[in-house]
Each structure stands twice: as structure tokens, then as C-alpha cells.
Amino acid sequence: MSPQINLASEPFRRDRLVVITSAAIAAVLAVTLALLVSIIVTDRRAMQNDRMALDSLDHQMRVMRAEQSKLDAQLRMAGNADVLDRSVFINRLLYRKGISWTRLFEDLGKVAPPNVRIVSIRPQVDDRDHIALDMTVGAESQQPIIEFVTRLESSDLFGDATVSVIQPPSQTDPLYRYRIGVNYAQKL
Q1: Could you tell me if 106 and 167 lie in one domain?
Q2: How many CB atoms are located within 10 Å of the residue 53 CB?
Q3: Residue 178 domain-assigned?
Q4: Nearest partner of 109 among 151, 154, 153, 139, judged by Cα
Q5: Same domain, yes or no: 63 and 122
Q6: Distance set, CA 124 to CA 72, 110, 112, 128, 165 (Å)
Q7: DSSP class of residue 128?
Q8: Domain total for the chain?
Q9: What is the mean pLDDT of the chain?
Q10: Which of 143, 141, 154 is nearest to 111 (CA)?
Q11: Where are the beta strands (DSSP E) in 33-146?
């Protein structure tokens, strides 16, 4: 029996599995890198297209603002100012006429307690086409009016209510009268 002696300077090792695994991981990492680079390039192109579209919209907006300022200057000239004021006045009248009284009373009927009387209503339309109601309501006691105000504020159609004047009952009028201002969201 002869003893086995290894005369090589480095002993034999089995590294094939480590090399194959390292090569596979390197290939996966290379594919991932290529995928990430393609995503970055695609995003840059999309961002560049978005910037160009935004620049185009900005340019259009500047052109429209310039045209609007020219038209405003023309409308503000001495001869045209009267026509502009008259058309604004007529448009406001038409817009105010567009308020549906039937729908207004239906909406108020949904939130008003049965023992609250609506004495007067004055709708007002502001420059932004919001409707504000100036109402005078009355009741024999204060509790129904307070309930009415809380129902107005919790309704989807009405906004925050502000009470400006409170009149106690008198000898000629047995009702508590409250003057209430509230925003109304009727679609015109």
C-alpha cells in the first residue's frame, strides 16, 4: 500500500459550484441593471414630453392673458364702459331670475321645524355666483329657531348660518324674530 502524497503547491478544491452560482447572480444583476436603466430612460423621455406640454400650455395661457388684457382695456374705454356696466347689470338680473323659488322653499321645508315661520327671504348673488340668503324667521319660542339654525348648518345645501338680529315678542307680534344669513348651494 502506497501512501498518497500531493506534490502540488495548492491543494485541489471544488470551486465549480461557487463559480457557477456567482456567474448566475452576476447575470441576474446585469439584467436588473439593464431593466433599471431602460426604466430611467423611459421616465426621462416621459418627463421631457410632460415639460414640453407644460411649456406649450404656459405659452397658450400667456397669449390668452394678453388677449384678455387687450379686450379688458377695450371694454374699459369711455364709450364702452356704459355698455359693459349695463350688460353686467342685465346678466346679474338674469342670474338672479334663475334662482328657483320652488326648489328654495322645498329645501327650506326639509330643514325647517314645523313651528318655525319664514317671514321673509332675500336671495343675493355675489360676483362668484354664490347665493346668500338673508332670512327673517319667527317662532313662539327660541328653541325651534335654534334647532332650525343647527339644521341649516348640518345640511349639505346650506352653509354656516349667522344670526344678526334677534327681536323678542312684542304686544303686536307674539313671535321671536331672528334675522339669519346663510349660504345656499342651489345649482343655477
Answers
A1: yes
A2: 10
A3: yes
A4: 151
A5: no
A6: 26, 21, 20, 11, 18
A7: T
A8: 2
A9: 86
A10: 154
A11: 117-125, 131-139
pLDDT single digits (tens) 89-134: 887 777 666 677 888 888 888 899 999 999 999 888 777 777 888 9
Q: Where does the pLDDT of residue 73 fall: very low under 50, low under 70, confident under 90, or very high at 90 and above? A: confident
Q: Are residues 159 and 109 in the same domain?
A: yes
Residue 140 DSSP symbol: S
Give the residue numbers spanning the domain of 71. Answer: 13-75
Residue 3 covered by a domain: no
3-state secondary structure 93-122: HHHHHCCCHHHHHHHHHHHCCCCCEEEEEE
**Would residue 1 count as lying in a domain?**
no
Q: CATH code at 128? A: 3.30.70.2830
Q: Rounded to whole angstroms, what are the CA distances from 97 to 60, 92, 121, 124, 157?
A: 36, 8, 14, 11, 19
**DSSP code at position 125:** E
pTM greater than 0.85:
no
Cβ neighbours, 10 Å, residue 12: 7
In a domain, 126, yes or no: yes
pLDDT in tens, 152-175: 988 888 888 888 888 888 888 888
Q: Do 130 and 177 have their domain in common?
A: yes
